[in-house]
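hey m, so remember when u said the tokens were messed up on ur end? i reran from scratch. heres the input so u can diff it against urs
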Amino acid sequence: MAFFTFPNPVNDKAARTVATGVVAISVLTLVTGWWWLLVPLALGFLGRVLAGPRLSPLGWLAMRVVAPRLGEPVLTPGPPKRFAQGIGLAFSTTAAVLALGLGLQTAAGIVLGVLVVFATLEAALGFCAGCWAFGHLMRLGVIPRRPARPAPTSPVAARLSRSR
């Protein structure tokens, strides 16, 4: 397995644990005004988008420590979860730029508040809004139903392209 891959399937218990951590960090940021916490929050999302839990301390903790103690895994498709992590990256990065780069803490708080709402839905109810959006984008044809074929630029890619 390549390093920069996202697991498929994903243990939903680990995903909900990560969402709980996101809620905790985000609420702590909103309550204390410690806007610097947005940096590790955004970097965690970036790590999870790039390589699943491998580059995210929160993801690693959820997958290796917390989720195994919650019983048997509940498996769910990985691509929608990766898409949801990308949305979290966009919101957390936007909040960080607003608060730390532009000094607009109120605007950052609003963006972070939206992230808290959606992370809470995932953590508490198991409703992944990003996954829901992913499904609708697939039905609309915006996201392909199956991965694209590799461009035949190498002998391996050419062989894979011919075998499909």
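this time it looks ok to me. The CA atoms of residues 136 and 142 lie 9 Å apart. if urs says something different then somethings off w ur setup not the seq
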